[in-house]
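sanity check this record:

:::
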Amino acid sequence: MIGRLALARVAAAAPAAAALDGRVVLVAGATGGLGRAAVLACAGAGATVVLLGRKVRALEKLYDEVAAAGGAQPAIYPLDLAGASPDDYGQVADTVERECGRLDGIVHAAAQFAGLQPTDQIKPEEWLRTQQVNLTAPFLLTQACLPLLRQRERAAVVFAFDDPATIGKAFWGGYGVAKHALPGLVSILHEETDTGPVRIHGLLPAPMRTALRRTAWFGEDTLSLPTPDAAGAAAAFLLTDAASGLRGAILDLRPA
């Protein structure tokens, strides 16, 4: 258990071919390690993917990668979550509805981590930015998109967690606090939506080769870790109908 949420494992956490055909999926933090892997997995399963991130050039590069793979044409939505206002999230939902006509899923893969540091050295603006990206943005984006998601018969939202046994230790600062609070948000959302068309899921990846991992574990040979591909495939899997039995649970990808 993490908070009130049960941990779950599945034998093959990857979407079946065409499992997301005709669906529209929004991936926040699309150009990060987990985000990019989730985008490619969702597109590979047939989804039209809306790429949300702050760096336009990186979004364009990922757009070209998805398009070259022959999947549905993706869309780009540049947004800096650290500086976004509540109205900005409403505009995301309005734009997706206007341009795509529907929204079937969200993957929250964006993360803000400035590095390990003592609590008394965290600058106030860095604390606020970390809470904004890791906790407030997932809440506000989900809240803004819920009316659109509820128009579908089967929709899902996936939140990416981090290992609570690690991030509760010294020097994890605002990132650790935000990631500890996230299961509470997910639990509340699940209990409020558990009889409706929108499923809420958590995803707990195993250690993987990402920029965030390199920042936190600077003495580690990050290249020895697996790429985020398995975690991205698991995020896509959670959006499919096959994951309906994991509603309100955390898919645990860590080694048993």
Q: What stands out?
A: The mean pLDDT is 93. The CA atoms of residues 46 and 205 lie 23 Å apart. The beta strands are 7-8, 24-28, 48-53, 75-78, 105-108, 155-160, 198-204, 250-252.
